[in-house]
Amino acid sequence: MAFLEAKALSKTYRNAEVPVPVLSSIHIEVEKGEMLAIVGPSGIGKSTLLHLLGGLDRPDSGRIRVGDADLSSMNNDELARFRNRNVGFVFQFHHLLPEFTAQENVAMPGWIGRSEKSAALKRAASLLLELGLEARSRHFPNQLSGGEQQRVAIARALLTDPLLFLADEPTGNLDLETSAKVFDLMRECHTKRGLTSVIVTHNPELAARCDRVLAMNRQQN
Ligand SMILES: Nc1ncnc2c1ncn2[C@@H]1O[C@H](COP(=O)(O)OP(=O)(O)OP(=O)(O)O)[C@@H](O)[C@H]1O
Ligand SMILES: [Mg+2]
Question: Which of 8, 64, 141, 172 is the most buried (most CB within 10 A)?
């Protein structure tokens, strides 16, 4: 049985004057330990799909199962708890909080999850060490390079020891060399922790280095 399974997912955004249909009856399965790349043209619904898979948003119809958790049957509190404990997210724009240091940013999911403050900080320090950023732990986000900010975001995504790692164009704002380095780090963390990962990318070289590539296109939608 696949670790992640999404069946017949459909999503239409209805907050605008004209409804925007984005996903219609999407099926996706990701095996435990697999690193899946999702590619496709801008606006096709890659970010939307990733948000649904990680429980950041809900589909209009369809079901999502992660391990033995059925996201579709969870209420909002359960979904938030599931996300905090089991899903690590990395976004194109790092979304680090500017008034907190790198270490505090990494510790944040622990604080939100109500682990003890000092324990979360300690774990954050060891993740920053693992990602080669120990010398940057007291820096604020605006004192870090783009590649360093993304590495901090990866550390933050790993804080709660998630099972599922989701990254939305994690190297979208980085030069080629830095992108390759950040990707190498993600791959290393993925393998070491036995994660199941879904990476949205516009970079074909990085997509090819994942275990499998899923191309979203107009016909599928
Ligand atoms: N919150 C929202 N409200 C209304 N429409 C939205 C919302 N988020 C996305 N959309 C629309 O849904 C479609 C899919 O957006 P999405 O961000 O998933 O695409 P994407 O494949 O990630 O694109 P990109 O490669 O540019 O990031 C787009 O047409 C977008 O305008
Ligand atoms: Mg997107």
Answer: 64
Residue 37 CA: distances (Å) to CA of 19, 102, 132, 168: 28, 28, 25, 10
Query: Is the distance from the beta carbon of residue 47 to the nearest atom of ligand 1 less than 6 Å?
Result: yes
Specify the CATH number of the domain 30-58+72-215: 3.40.50.300
Q: Mean pLDDT by 10-residue block, N- to C-terminus, for the chain (221 residues)?
A: 97 92 96 98 96 96 97 95 94 90 96 85 96 96 95 96 96 92 95 97 95 85 44
Among 18, 46, 49, which residue has the most ligand 1 atoms within 8 Å of its CB, making it the best to mutate? 46
End-to-end CA distance of the chain: 25
Structural domain boundaries in the chain: 30-58+72-215
